[in-house]
Q: What sequence folds into this?
């Protein structure tokens, strides 16, 4: 029997409807300091978090930890490739580490080691 996608498991765990998934996951995965600034940034520049929401959508479709890991690595690599001061430099964005940890918990797999996610030079790697 196939396991349900991450989105279903997330909604069950946090008691939200599938329609609320993206917003709830966005809030859950933001860095703590980004939670204060995100509403203002979204009001000024509505598309600022486009890639973050795209990542959340892809992660929601993950059926196992391998797929979730691939989505997480893709988001991390994309963030490095398209570096922006506010988004990447000041980390006003979702944390790929928070997302992967929760994916591991909900999809029932042991968490990946940090060796699979080397730290960024000059940053925390999250």
A:
């Amino acid at each position: 029997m196939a396991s349900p996608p991450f989105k279903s498991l997330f909604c069950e765990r946090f008691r939200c409807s599938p329609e609320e998934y993206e917003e709830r996951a966005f809030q859950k995965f933001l860095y703590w300091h980004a939670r204060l600034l995100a509403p203002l940034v979204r009001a000024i520049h509505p598309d600022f978090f486009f890639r973050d929401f795209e990542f959340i959508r892809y992660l929601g479709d993950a059926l196992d930890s391998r797929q979730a890991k691939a989505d997480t690595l893709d988001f991390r690599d994309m963030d490095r490739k398209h570096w922006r001061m506010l988004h990447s430099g000041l980390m006003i964005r979702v944390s790929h580490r928070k997302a992967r940890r929760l994916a591991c918990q909900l999809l029932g797999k042991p968490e990946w080691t940090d060796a699979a996610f080397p730290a960024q030079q000059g940053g925390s790697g999250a």
Q: What stands out?
A: The chain has a mean pLDDT of 83. The chain has one domain: 6-109.
